[in-house]
Specification:
Layout lengths: L3 E2 L4 H13 L2 H11 L4 H18 L4 H24 E2 L3 H4 L1 H5 L15 H12 L5 H20 L5 H22 L1 H9 L2
Parallel strand pairs: 1-2
Amino acid sequence: MAVVTVKPTRIDTAIANEIADHTNSGLEQAAQTLTWAADEHVLLALAAAGWLYAQLRRPEARPAANHILAMTLATSVLPHALKSVFDQTRPDRTTIRGHQNGVPFSGRPRDAFPSGHAMHMGALASAAGLLPTRPRRAIRVIAVALSLTRVALLAHWPSDVLAGFSLGIVVERLLRPLTLARRQHHRRMQP
């Protein structure tokens, strides 16, 4: 049993009702497919593969690979810990109109807060700040879009997604000095 019960805001409820009223099977299938790109299992596998590749073939990429792996691990564990403290019913359990349109049930019914998918995407969007302008913008647009699939599927309230995305940014920024300190120190030492 969680310690704190979180209630959706009026805006959360209004948005969920609008989605439930106007969704269709094509949109739902597209959102279900896209949401996998922000799933912790997929991201952990990609981060581990990237880390291993950097260790074996790209020594200059090791600090970035270490950072991405640490960030992915942290944003995989943190939502589960927070969901044991916070109790919130998912919109797909309370917006019956959504099921008339075929919106699928998502995850455990009382594990809406915060969105783990959005936390991963917030961390990724924040880490993209280390990249040049064009890829940074592209990654940030993709991260926001993938986070919004959780709202479109009624898996999370908009406030869950906003909280998860924001926490992901915080996690990434807190890890930077720990995982990228050597990289920044090394850059300063070069002429």
